Amino acid sequence: MLSSRLLLLSSFFSLLQADETILGVYIFHRHGDRTSKSFAPTTLTDLGYCQVYGSGEFYRNRYIDANASSPIYGISSSVVKNSQLSVEAPVDTVLQNSAAGFLQGLYPPVGATLGTQLLANGTRVEAPLGGFQLIPVNAVASASSAANSENSAWLQGQSGCANAIISSNAYFYSQEYMNKLNSTMSFYQSILPVISGTFTNATDTFKNAYSIYDLIHVSTIHNSSASIPSDNLLTNETLFQLQTLADNHEFNLAFNSSEPIRAIAGSTLAAQIVQQLNSTIVGKSKSQVSLQFGAYASFLSFFGLAQLPQVSENFTGICDYASSMTFELVTNATVSNTSYPSNDQISIRFLFSNGTASENPLTAYPLFGQNETVIPWTTFVDEMDNFAIGDQATWCSQCGNSTGVCASTAASTSSGSSASSTSSPTSSSGGISKAVAGVIGAMVTLAVILGLEAIVMLIGGLRLVSKKRLSGGNVTPETVAPVKA
């Protein structure tokens, strides 16, 4: 009897799902596997290419294909219509190539039938590479116009936001940082034989947690054990500890609940998400897919602002290569050429895949401390509005910048500047007014470039701990200045 009831409920929920229409999506995606940042220039590897291509195939099967599991309303299933896509990536080789590889999976070659054109003189021209589809990737520079950001250990300095840099650097003076620096001294010294060709006694510390993790992580993926010095030191426990320390280090640089400016990357990303999804609503799904590639630090900043660490501790860690978070515009109202849902009939679903979506489940999670994974569009906009920064004047004001691109803004900024570029939706407009992106462009990536100055070495005990329970003794604060790693 119970199994019969469960079957009935399952059928009922299937019918409910079938009534749902996806109006559009916004996907924020990390690059695929790459070479180590310790050896510039950093490049996308063949493995990374496969990862982003596989993710593109996954999203094609979910949203684009004629037999897609969750088709987007009005999307072209075979031949790409570039007017339906908005694709962006910073001026960075790894991120640009990752975007291009993803698009090859999203819209693969169409073959000779669809990829052949008949000219007026009767000549048939077949597109190269089996009907390979050309999709532009818009190159977006950060506020500081820094290119090839993936060559840097971490990127807050390249955000160009003075107050964000100051906030992140303040972490190096915190008691939490001092305790961890002290408690992990002996741990990092124990692995020095593995990385002595790149790091020294002075730089082999928690201060460079991510750079050390990145070097070893890449080595364990691409190098044989014979080519890794003292590889016997890299036990599973040691690798786990390296990642745990790097996770904690980077999350604290990307987000602090008492200093929202530290999460500048998440704030600017939030404004762009709302802006692009709003464009889909205003245009009645004429532009349905927005895709942006960016760095892991932007994920961490947004996770913190959206209260996702309350849902899972995993949202305080560095996401894997080719990870993606997706925002689906959904409705249960009737959608047709003559009928489009109003704001109060539209909702948002947030999903995240830690790693390429073709191998890791794309899972829905609740945002902003909500209980439901699908929330009303108006609620979503209101919550994002609490921390979104999407116009130049507000960005300059919040960052404390008054030179360069902010020089003219500083002279004319009024005291009534809003901390967000978004406004509340109105049912008559079908959306909200568009955010003005300004010169900060699509995404201001987060991080601060680690200083490699010497640290007084103190001997501390080593123990394997979780992300939330790293602890230790005290050391004297040192001067920290962001420099290229």
Automatic annotation (TrEMBL):
- Name the UniProt key words of this record, in alphabetical order: Membrane, Signal, Transmembrane, Transmembrane helix
Could you state a single Gene Ontology molecular function term?
A: phosphatase activity
Q: Which residues form the signal peptide?
A: 1-18
- Name the domain of life this protein comes from: Eukaryota
**Does Secreted count among this protein's keywords?**
no
Keyword ATP-binding found: no
- What Pfam families does the database record attribute to this sequence? His_Phos_2
Q: Which residues cross the membrane?
A: 435-459
InterPro entries given for it? Answer: His_Pase_clade-2, His_PPase_superfam, Histidine_acid_phosphatase
- What protein family is recorded? Belongs to the histidine acid phosphatase family.
Q: Which protein are we looking at?
A: Histidine acid phosphatase
Name the species this protein comes from. Cudoniella acicularis
